[in-house]
Amino acid sequence: MPDTARLRLVPSQPEEPRPKERRPAEPLWREVLGHRLRALRLDKDETLAETAGRAGISPQYLSEVERGRKEPSSEMIAALAGALGTSLIDLTEQVAHDLRRLQAAAAPARIAPVAPRGPGAPRAQLSLAA
Q1: What is the pTM for the complete model shown?
Q2: Number of H-type helices and E-type strands within the chain
Q3: Residues of the chain predicted below pLDDT 70
């Protein structure tokens, strides 16, 4: 009887589950917008009723927008910006700045590697593609 090699299946070991990198949840646009609108209103020392009246909405709705509970339409955001003495583009830039600041604060601190120095240290080479 000839000697033949036999293959045998070996059950594989289950892989160790890799911990998922959890990124902090990004703040919602409507919440950051609401905080910015409230800050603008308070800077002007206005009540909800005063600002809401000029924007043509109810004070209750403005309160919900400021608390991030309602997602206002672009027309409503423009009306609120006008009622607070700013433009839609300025308000949008302020909210974008707030979002960047919040994102930077939530990001884990990263330490940049320090390049070795001295006579034996490798030199970085830069090249430009045409």
Answers
A1: 0.66
A2: 5, 0
A3: 1-5, 7-24, 108-130
